[in-house]
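new request in #modeling-help
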Amino acid sequence: DTGVSQNPRHKITKRGQNVTFRCDPISEHNRLYWYRQTLGQGPEFLTYFQNEAQLEKSRLLSDRFSAERPKGSFSTLEIQRTEQGDSAMYLCASSSGTGGIRCFGPGTRLTVT
Amino acid sequence: QQQVKQSPQSLIVQKGGISIINCAYENTAFDYFPWYQQFPGKGPALLIAIRPDVSEKKEGRFTISFNKSAKQFSLHIMDSQPGASATYFCAASINTGNQFYFGTGTSLTVIP
């Protein structure tokens, strides 16, 4: 399978706990994106990387959120001190830059209780 | 604020019918307009995309119509089939590599 993979697929956590998600992009893609999707809404941009450099961050990405892409390969998204409003599907995508996003990963569904 | 406005929120079409979903945008710097299809439990997948230098693009049953002066674009699904029942999102971006702004989605149901 050469698509974008995300782990875990589901995460249930209590308010105030920290969580970390992982995204493995398509291997030859140099751009990696994180989006958040809530029920009945379109994906909202969070951040993106070109190789290991984080080029843009949304204002949605509060200081409780941090993303990394060491060595320009997989990426992690960490949410500290989770709040109920963080409950959403977190989607990852990758692209070669010129071709746009063809497919998102299956997402990690976060539920904060 | 919503950069891309999408309508309708939901759509029910008979098998074989035409499904039409509309989107509008304000930012004239947008130069890439993709449509995505999302099935339950899956991430969105690219269906078809258009750039503002053409007014129409067709791929199989899917056609994008683009009206640059009105800042509107639409997706037409011809001969709609039950397997096309999914949520459809329009999006827009400045260059293909930057962040995408998505519409709120249209839930399409094709009745057999």
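bot summary: The radius of gyration of chain B is 13 Å.
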